[in-house]
Amino acid sequence: MSATVSADNPPVRRLSDWSDARLDDLADEYDTPLYVIDLERVRENYARLAAAFPDADVHFAAKANTSRAVLETLEAEGASIECASAGETERAFAAGFEGERVHYTAVNPPGIDLDRAVELAADHPGLTVTVGAADTIDRLAERGYDGRLCLRVNPGVGAGHHEKVRTGADAKFGVPYDRAASLLESAADDFDVVGIHAHAGSGISGDDLGNHRELVSRMGELARTIDPDLEFVDVGGGFGVPYHPDDPPLDLESVADATRDALGDLDATLVVEPGRYLVADAGVLLTRVNTVKEAPETTVVGVDAGMTALVRPALYDSYHHIRSVGADGQAVETTVAGPICESSDTFGTHLLADPTRGDLLAVGNAGAYGYEMASQYNSRPRPAVVVVDGDRTGVAHRRETHADVIATETEVTWE
Ligand SMILES: *Cc1c(COP(=O)(O)O)cnc(C)c1O
């Protein structure tokens, strides 16, 4: 368990820990905006988490970062994977995950997703489908599916740093807690019922352990009342990461202790499924300053990455720390803003050393929900993604071009 505190695997990698020279070289070679993902840090995060939860299965919530190189890295380390759509499930198999290490969690699944999931389950026995509505169980049965089934339960407790990422108390996700046992028992006639699942939202921190405990203990209680016996109890992800340089790292040992304690005695295997914890601090977004404007209230620093490259600040009011790579000089309070014609297109207020046109800025904790949520709004091509691993560098996503942006557009032929 020393992995969690050892100097060569620190609990958090801060933005200041990235090498200026390396980031400069990458920006020069691959241009900006550019995502940089360090696969060695992904391995370290997985090792630390797996050490804190030695009896649990660790599933990576793929929606945080589906780059093939990231998935292959985690697969090789022994992780399992949690997929939010048929598309992600497909990518998990393409990255080499075996059927029994893949869970597909269907949220109001379009028919096309269920069709594909049933096909994938036939090719990859062991795939587990997690459903959050009785209706979805019927839709799987209609498609002839009789494989591994897990029920997503709405535990009635929520955690989270923002209302939009809190899902536990939201009726959209999972079946009501008090209907779960009877639904599972009836589903057991037609499916291989293997587990129950809950995910309370994102941002579990030291302060939020009360909610986490409550969720886990309710899941433990439910598992003990269910007949047939379950193979696993999945208590979700949402392990928080420090987005602000002054935020302490998550005390993983406390979370793990609280989880074991709250779960109580159980034959079933505990499953945890973090996304951001495994990849957030393994990534930065590099962006170049193109405009510096003195306004009466602030200095506006215009950069080439905007909400289309990283939407979390605009969408969730998230803080992402920003520093000027290699710059020194007087720190000035600035507003860092992107090139999108939209007032929410800003990365907030940051102290930057002597902001100058041409400066390279690094945006921290961009490895989770960064490229994944990128869009082409304003006809802006999505950034490139490079992965680094020790001294090696490789392109994981090439930079899009304007031709890519219009690639699906067709000249309308009227009928
Ligand atoms: C998003 C999600 C996760 C991962 O959340 P993180 O905050 O990235 O850890 C895990 N499970 C489910 C079902 C999710 O929807």
UniProtKB/TrEMBL annotation:
* Lyase as UniProt keyword: yes
What is the stated purpose of this protein? Answer: Specifically catalyzes the decarboxylation of meso-diaminopimelate (meso-DAP) to L-lysine.
What high-level taxonomic lineage is stated for the organism? Archaea, Methanobacteriati, Methanobacteriota, Stenosarchaea group, Halobacteria
The active-site annotation reads 341
Subunit-structure text? Homodimer.
Pathway listed for it is: Amino-acid biosynthesis; L-lysine biosynthesis via DAP pathway; L-lysine from DL-2,6-diaminopimelate: step 1/1
SUPFAM superfamilies attached to this UniProt entry: Alanine racemase C-terminal domain-like, PLP-binding barrel
Cross-referenced InterPro entries: Ala_racemase/Decarboxylase_C (IPR009006), DAP_deCOOHase_LysA (IPR002986), De-COase2_CS (IPR022657), De-COase2_N (IPR022644), De-COase2_pyr-phos_BS (IPR022653), Orn/DAP/Arg_de-COase (IPR000183), PLP-binding_barrel (IPR029066)
Quote the protein name from its UniProt record: Diaminopimelate decarboxylase
Domain called Orn/DAP/Arg decarboxylase 2 N-terminal: residue spans? 40-280
What's its catalytic activity? meso-2,6-diaminopimelate + H(+) = L-lysine + CO2
Establish whether keyword Repeat is in the entry.
no
**Positions with a binding annotation for pyridoxal 5'-phosphate:** 238, 273-276, 369
**What GO terms are given for molecular function?**
diaminopimelate decarboxylase activity; pyridoxal phosphate binding
- Cofactor list: pyridoxal 5'-phosphate
| Pfam families in the cross-refs | Orn_Arg_deC_N
The record lists substrate as bound by 276, 312, 316, 342, 369
Q: Which family does it belong to?
A: Belongs to the Orn/Lys/Arg decarboxylase class-II family. LysA subfamily.
Which residues are recorded as modified (N6-(pyridoxal phosphate)lysine)? 63
